[in-house]
């Protein structure tokens, strides 16, 4: 929980007076914390993990920040993907953290939160970008035009990820889907993996990682217009143990058994799937391929970069202020900074994306990545002696929102 308002304001005035004496900092000014490397101080959550909170004087008023500093060089510290066990599912960050044994965490990627433009179509709750959990690829990215959340900064993509490799170092990267569907007669490129929106004309694969949500949403909208009508030309083929066992004109729902892949096609993809016959042998292959190559990822999730090499990306929004969540990378990928703003009424003006980049840089980040904000922004951490986490910020909706994934912090042998 945050401290009393009078205490925060008093501390904020003292530090602001100090800053004024030495000249104003450019961009958002941090009050109650040192402007660089500050997140490595604070209250210890666990060995290698600390928590602190402080005010930030931003363009549209004072906001309040909650920050976790995570030392990935510590032998017992790691970060992993929090998720509720299925791609098309949501849970509160605190529940996911406790279920997986995390000592702290924040919410993650933007997600398919509503389907007002497609009456009768179920919102899947699935995230926008790629996701990797414990080294296993869960899903790929939807087309840029199908994403939820604020406009992407120039030059960024739904394939952008924050990740931590098997070497224990955090980095920003881009993960693209590579895959194919093969029969004795043909080979088709795979256009999607466990994602709520497939590219027009493509074939996507859904596995047991998807969950039981309807797959109809995958055939709605277009690559450039999320609100475009659902396709009227669709087809679904179920492959079990390498052979076609059933087909349908409309994508279905319900859990997918292990060893089973459901192929969903739209437009040209649907026309190709109609050529498959029951009993036919089908081989489906897929992988998430990193733009940088090299070390495999244990954890990856989507969002978008705001800071690279210590410099803010050009074209970041410097007008729209909101409650935000972000993750920063410092010390050559050996330290991670997790930030969530407070959604209490007194602080709800928040930060612009440009101010988020500036704040993460002042906290010592060389690279930073914006995650879902608004009512999703949540930071949790265990209090001394506790075996479960507590929500440290005030979610702007008045209660924790269920989200598809997050970044969990783990400390222990």
Describe the structure.
The protein is mostly beta strands. It has four helices and 26 strands. The N terminus is likely disordered.
Number of distinct beta strands: 26
What is the chain-wise order of helices and strands? Answer: HEEEEEHEEEEEEEEEEEHEEEEEEHEEEE
Low-confidence stretches: 1-27, 32-40
Largest sheet: 9 strands, antiparallel
Structural class: mainly beta
The end-to-end span amounts to 28 Å
Percent of residues in β-strands? 35-45%
Write down the overall mean pLDDT: 91
The backbone outline, from C-alpha atoms, is: globular
What portion of residues is helical? Answer: under 10%
Rg over alpha carbons: 22 Å
Number of helices: 4
SSE arrangement:
Layout (H helix, E strand, L loop, with lengths): L4 H17 L7 E3 L11 E4 L2 E10 L2 E11 L5 E6 L10 H8 L3 E4 L23 E3 L2 E4 L20 E6 L4 E13 L4 E3 L2 E2 L9 E4 L27 E7 L2 E6 L11 E7 L1 H6 L9 E8 L6 E6 L1 E5 L2 E2 L12 E6 L4 E7 L11 H10 L4 E5 L7 E4 L6 E3 L14 E6 L2
Parallel strand pairs: 12-13
Antiparallel strand pairs: 1-3, 2-3, 3-4, 4-22, 5-26, 6-24, 6-26, 7-8, 7-18, 9-10, 9-18, 10-11, 10-17, 13-16, 14-15, 14-16, 19-20, 19-23, 21-22, 21-23, 24-25
Q: Main traits of this protein?
A:
single chain; 413 residues; mainly beta; 9-stranded antiparallel β-sheet; 7-stranded antiparallel β-sheet; 26 strands; 10% helix; globular; disordered N terminus
């Amino acid at each position: 929980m945050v401290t009393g308002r009078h205490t925060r304001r008093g501390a904020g005035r003292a530090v602001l007076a100090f800053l004024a004496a030495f000249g104003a900092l450019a961009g958002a000014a941090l009050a109650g914390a040192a402007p660089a490397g500050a997140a490595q101080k604070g209250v210890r959550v666990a060995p290698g993990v600390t928590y602190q909170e402080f005010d930030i004087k931003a363009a549209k008023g004072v906001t309040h920040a909650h920050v976790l500093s995570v030392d990935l060089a510590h032998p017992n510290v790691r970060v992993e993907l929090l998720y509720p066990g299925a791609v098309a599912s949501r849970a509160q960050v605190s529940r996911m953290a406790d279920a997986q044994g995390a000592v702290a965490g924040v919410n993650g990627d933007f997600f398919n939160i509503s389907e007002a433009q497609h009456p009768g179509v179920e919102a899947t709750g699935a995230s926008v970008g790629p996701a990797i959990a414990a080294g296993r690829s869960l899903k790929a990215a939807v087309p840029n035009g199908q994403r939820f959340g604020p406009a992407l900064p120039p030059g960024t993509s739904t394939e952008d990820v924050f990740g931590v490799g098997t070497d224990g170092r955090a980095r920003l990267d881009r993960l693209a889907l590579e895959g194919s569907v093969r029969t004795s007669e043909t080979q088709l490129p795979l256009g999607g993996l466990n994602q709520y929106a497939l590219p027009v004309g493509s074939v996507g694969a859904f596995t047991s990682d998807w969950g039981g949500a309807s797959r109809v949403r995958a055939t709605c909208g277009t690559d450039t217009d999320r609100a475009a009508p659902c396709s009227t030309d669709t087809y679904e083929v179920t492959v079990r143990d390498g052979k076609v066992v059933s087909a349908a004109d409309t994508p279905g729902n319900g859990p997918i058994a292990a060893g089973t892949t459901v192929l969903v096609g739209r437009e040209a993809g649907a026309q190709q799937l109609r050529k498959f016959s029951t009993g036919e042998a089908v081989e489906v292959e897929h992988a998430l391929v990193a733009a940088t190559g090299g070390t495999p990822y244990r954890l990856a999730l989507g969002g978008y970069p705001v800071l690279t090499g210590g410099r803010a990306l050009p074209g970041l929004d410097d007008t729209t202020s909101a409650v935000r969540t972000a993750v920063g990378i410092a010390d050559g990928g050996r330290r991670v900074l997790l930030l969530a703003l407070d959604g209490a009424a007194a602080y709800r003006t928040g930060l612009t994306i440009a101010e988020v980049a500036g704040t993460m840089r002042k906290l010592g980040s060389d690279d930073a990545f914006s995650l879902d904000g608004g009512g999703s922004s949540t930071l949790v951490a265990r209090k001394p002696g506790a075996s479960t986490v507590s929500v440290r910020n005030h979610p702007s909706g008045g209660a924790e929102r269920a989200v598809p994934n997050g970044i969990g912090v783990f400390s222990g042998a």
